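Next up, sample data:
>
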Amino acid sequence: MSAPRPDVRELSTEARCPLHPSASAVATCERCGNFACDQCVRRGPDLLSYCQSCLGRGPEFVTLASRGDRLLATLFDAFIISAPLFFAGVGQGLASARKTGFSPIWVSFALLITLGVLVAQLFGVARTGQSLGKRWRGIKVVRMDGSPVSLGVLLLVRNLIPHGVSQLTLGVTGILDTLFIFREDRRCLHDLIAGTQVVYASSDESSRHA
């Protein structure tokens, strides 16, 4: 008798595989919910169990984004949001030091640029699951079955709530969140909470939204 597979869990002996009725099911497909026997169950790139039919569909199963690309995307997003206000602040500081006037129009201009970037970020995330930084690196946020994530989950569950908790804990949970990227599935703590993963967008998607 062969040893049980490490990527599946034991189910009730009454659970049967629909393709092999005589075989006991050893896993439940994460996509369709059907039982799968040892012959049918497959492990997807997200390290979860799927039946042969669902795993063979292809588009829903993609390559996990590298840690480097995720870091670059995060740094880029932070830079384009903070840069306008940073340079406006530097200009105002220099003007004060030299006792010269600093026109408020530059601060207003910086605020408008920042607002424009935020709108572009929101539009991209809602449309493709990609911030500007993620689009630059060719990666996107999806659910564990490869389907799009709702805007509410992306903004509230995946970003705002974890950020708020991090502020309340003086950054401790933020550090823990980041360290989770070193898991085998490269999912940060906010990904686990939101049920998401970051993967590479297909070349067709990148060209279509360019």
